Amino acid sequence: MTNKILFLIILVASAIYANSQERCGTAAINQQRMEKSSEYKKARDKVNNQTAKWIKEHPNYTPETTITIPVVVHVVWNTNDQNISDTQIQSQIDVLNADFNRTNIDAINTPNIWQNIAADCEIEFCLANIDPNGNPTTGITRTQTNTSQFQISGPSVEDASTGGKEPWNINQYLNIWVCNLGGGVLGYASQPSEFLSSNDGVVINYTNFGNSGNSNAPYHKGRTATHEVGHWLNLDHIWGNNNCGNDYITDTPKQEKDNNGCPGFPHNINSCNTPNINGDMFMNYMDYTNDQCMNLFTKGQKTRMLAAINEYRPNILTHSLCSGTANILETNTNKKEILKIVDVLGRVTNKQSRGMPLFYIYNDGSVEKKLIP
Q: Is the Cβ–Cβ distance between 167 and 136 less than 8 Å?
């Protein structure tokens, strides 16, 4: 076999692999959680009405200052290459800040027709330097695990009983888990609601986190986390998760389905039988295109994210978790620590079996039941 033929085979295989990956598992994880909990489904069903109401009541809302979201990154690793470096983690924070504040260098690639609605979201991110106990921290935790791969259907990286790491206070921090995520999924997130869950946050495959130290092109520039944090702040996919669906944003054009690769502009003119000569906004962070082709959130998306923070994540508006001094987390009472995990017979265990209920006993006296999927 000549080198030329071998190169072509590798190129085709790489293209098939890239196209076979499901970029985002958020819709799937939402469906799974709704099937498990009727309360979760009810809470999510209320979100769009509550969000629309808030936006209507705050038509000219602008944050007084840039909103800073404190982040804790939980690195859950099985092999040394999964134990990503601090440099790679910081590169992801830098990407989030550039993308959400529209200081990303590729902002110039936004088509002229949409330049006037491309948004500086006035949201930034920091690695927290105060932990839930009020102690200094780097904003990074590292957990070695025997679990070789985590998946949406389980084992769960957000659960210590399945080899993962329990979150920090979900009301105060954006928890981001970085791990070996299987099933071809690059990441997923919890969308906000009044139903608070212990697994609230964002999960990213370790080869797609940040823009340094990984080589998983074309998803190697940190845009998977940008996309998933968009979900965490209540954005839907730009095609509305259905053919010509509704993403509840007025300034994104109607779109038939997700886009992959890196299309040329305009793409899919008059999509969904609409008179839209500009086609799909495939460069939006909430599509599925390659990292290098993504470059904007819209003003409508910004408004929806600000509504989500005010409605469902209000503690983000007032905190001192990145300033070097403890404020709202001055005591240990805001952080529940697991004392032990027991089975239905009261035996201490860390083992898991599908369908087996486990009981988490915390230092504040509370008990939480979890069912292994």
A: no
- State the catalytic residue, choosing from 35, 57, 166, 228: 228
Integer Cα distance of 247 and 238 in angstroms: 6
Contacts of 102 (CB under 8 A, 6+ apart): 118, 119, 120, 121, 296, 297
Cβ-defined contacts of 87-91 (< 8 Å, 24+): 87/212, 87/213, 88/209, 88/210, 88/212, 88/213, 88/214, 89/127, 89/140, 89/178, 89/209, 89/210, 90/127, 90/210, 91/210, 91/211, 91/212, 91/213, 91/222
Burial of 91 (0-12, 13-18, 19+ CB in 10 A): buried
Domain for residue 110, yes or no?
yes
Burial of 175 (0-12, 13-18, 19+ CB in 10 A): buried
Of 150, 170, 290, 315, nearest to 226 by C-alpha is 290
**CA 12, CA 5: separation in Å to the nearest integer?**
11
Question: Is 228 known to be catalytic?
Answer: yes
Model-wide pTM > 0.90: no
221 plus 367 within the same structural domain: no
**Low-confidence stretches of the chain (pLDDT beneath 50):** 1-20, 325-335, 365, 373
Number of domains in the chain: 2
- Bridge partners (DSSP) of residue 217 are none
DSSP assignment, residue 21?
S
**Contact (CB, 8 A) for 170 and 201:** yes
Q: Is residue 4 part of a domain?
A: no
Dump pLDDT digits (tens) for 318-362.
Answer: 999 998 543 333 333 344 566 667 666 666 676 555 556 676 665
- CA 73 and chain centroid, separation: 12
- Asked if residue 163 lies in contact with residue 5, where contact means CB atoms within 8 angstroms, the answer is no
Whether residues 142 and 282 fall in one domain: yes
d(CA 48, CA 54): 10
Q: What does the alpha-carbon distance between residue 132 and residue 303 come to, in Å, rounded to a whole number? A: 29
Dihedral sign for Cα atoms in the order 88, 213, 92, 338: negative
**367/284 same-domain check:** no
